Amino acid sequence: MLSVKELMARRRVRTRSKLRRQRTDRPRLSVFRSSPQISGQVIDDARGQTLVAVSSLDKQMRAELKTGATVEAARAVGKLLAERAREAGVEKVVFDRGGYQFHGRVKALADGAREGGLDF
Description:
By secondary structure, this protein is α+β, with helices and mostly antiparallel strands. The chain has one domain (4-115): Nucleotidyltransferase, domain 5 (2-Layer Sandwich). The chain has 4 helices and 4 strands. It has helices at 4-22, 59-64, 71-87, 105-115; strands spanning 28-33, 38-44, 49-55, 94-96. A hairpin with a 4-residue loop joins strand 1 and strand 2 (38-44). Helix 3 packs parallel to helix 4 (105-115).
């Protein structure tokens, strides 16, 4: 029987391979979720470079939020990520949920990014 980490790694690889098969020239919005925090990055895979990164640990977010473990915090991180991405000239991305299910905080981050003006 596979461990939880091995199952997560399989889901992550499966998700990223599907994104690669689409062969879009859009950057990838990658999500990382831990128990107390959530973060997102906009990554240009062609250059191997992170364009924008936002976390619930950022100074701006810590001033606004009590904790990074809520749906409201994830939505706020998504909005700030979209704002910074648009400043960097990125408007269209592909959403990479990693190995996480698309609900709860991951979905809230995606909705916040959409509200902030990112297209995916």
